[in-house]
Amino acid sequence: MQTEQLLTLAEHFGTPLFVYDGDMVIERYNDLRRFIDHPRLELQYALKANFNMALLNELKDAGCGIDAVSPGEVEYALHLGFSPDKIIYTANNMTDGEFEKVFQTGVIMNIGELSRLRKAGAAHPGMSVCLRFNPDVTDGDSAKTMTGGDLTKFGILLEDIDQVLAIVREYKMKVVGLHEHTGSGIQKPESFHAAMKALMSVATCKNFPDLEFLDFGGGFKVPYRPDEASIDYVTLGAGIAERFKAFEKEYGRELRIKFEPGKFMVAQCGTLLTRVNTLKRNRKRLIAGTDSGFPQLIRPVLYDAYHQIFNLTNPDGKEEIYDICGNICETGDRFAEQRPMPEIREGDLLGIANAGAYCYSMGGIYNLRAMPAEVVVKGGKVISFRRRDTDRDLIDNITRTTETCDMVL
Ligand code: LLP
């Protein structure tokens, strides 16, 4: 988005403010469809990445489905008009109550634990199910978001296939899908192929006659650093389509191929606008204090993630090195540490890039500061505004949900 537009939005709606480019989200969706050229490709957007309503409506209208990970996400997607057959439920460590609630909606359950598979079969013999396997491929941009290999809680181990088959047989379950998700921000294209190979070999063991689809999760990375190479998605997508077609031949019939992109769809569409209100020199460090903070964009603190930051109001200033901090009472409350930036002055507006995925959605109200407002821009117009809670809203929510009790223990 152009700097002028960002300045206007900050002026009009105030800061901190999340700005999303709605056109870009649809472009990403169409890009991925073009890269993976397969007639039965289905994309199910990982709703956890960004649950902004206007963006979801755009995706729904474009034909996209949803990867949901909690009953709340399922209910929200249904509420927005996504039909149950467009949604997959990939929760982990779900309770019986959560399982039942989602099962009743008709959304396909994606199960990644033997224990849950057994409980599901016992409760609903003959049910259709998708099975999540651990692909035994380890990749991703942070150890905290790698979901294959030995150190993860996700998925059924490939070597447990006999136990899977025994449970499926006992409860006459219909396995309609197989699933894997390797990690978020997959660095090496080979990892996609290795994980696909693992899942396809489960499918071709011929013990799953009812398969309708294979789901290879998300993980398509986008560059965060200015010098970071992007993956050649044209080549990767062609390789994926080719391998899947070869697999279909071997399996003996046509299947659907699914992916669940989150970051790829929304990371780059978002910018967090925050204003610098305090400059301070702390002997060794020059500190730029902003009106946002880590609960509003936690990735640098949680994953040591790098987000590019632009000084939108002084882009040509003389370079200096800054710690760019928030307004939260913690020393670690930094968006960037020792970052070269064009001179920052009090009042300057900063734009934190790639703030569309896992920023607002991972946010919280620590220090009782409300999450920023959000706007969605499409075709040069603001099409949606979600206001920021007031301090009073925050307090009302606490008082509304708190009761005095006289329970004796
Ligand atoms: N499918 C499943 C089963 C997942 O667990 C995830 C992400 C996705 C799809 C989408 O992955 P993506 O395409 O967005 O990489 N908060 C972290 C990322 C956590 C990802 C969790 N699962 C971050 O900010 O890097």
Structure in words:
- This protein is α/β, with parallel strands linked by helices.
- It has 2 domains: 22-264, Alanine racemase (TIM Barrel); 268-397, Lyase, Ornithine Decarboxylase, Chain A, domain 1.
- Helix content is 31%, strand content 23%.
- It is built from 12 helices and 17 strands.
- It has helices spanning 3-13, 22-35, 53-62, 71-80, 96-103, 114-123, 161-170, 189-203, 233-251, 263-266, 299-303, 391-400, and strands at 17-21, 41-46, 65-68, 87-89, 108-111, 128-132, 174-179, 213-215, 256-259, 270-282, 285-290, 309-311, 319-325, 334-342, 349-352, 373-378, 381-386.
- Strands 1, 10, 11, 12, 13, 14, 15, 16 and 17 form a 9-stranded mixed beta sheet that branches. Strands 2-3-4-5-6-7-8-9 form an 8-stranded parallel barrel, surrounded by 4 helices.
- The N and C termini lie far apart (58 Å).
- The model has no long low-confidence stretch (mean pLDDT 97).
- Residues 46, 49, 67, 90, 145, 181, 184-185, 217-220, 260-264, 299, 303, 358 line the site of ligand LLP.
Distinctive features:
TIM Barrel; Lyase, Ornithine Decarboxylase, Chain A, domain 1; alpha/beta; 8-stranded parallel beta barrel; 9-stranded mixed sheet; about 25% strand; 17 strands; about 400 residues; 2 domains
> Uncertain spans, ≥5 residues at pLDDT below 50?
none
Task: Let me know the average pLDDT.
Answer: 97
* Proportion of beta-strand residues: 15-25%
- Which small-molecule species are bound to the chains here? ligand LLP
CATH superfamily of the largest domain: Alanine racemase
Largest sheet properties: 9 strands, mixed
Looking at the structure, what is the overall shape? globular
* Cα-based radius of gyration, to the nearest Å: 23 Å
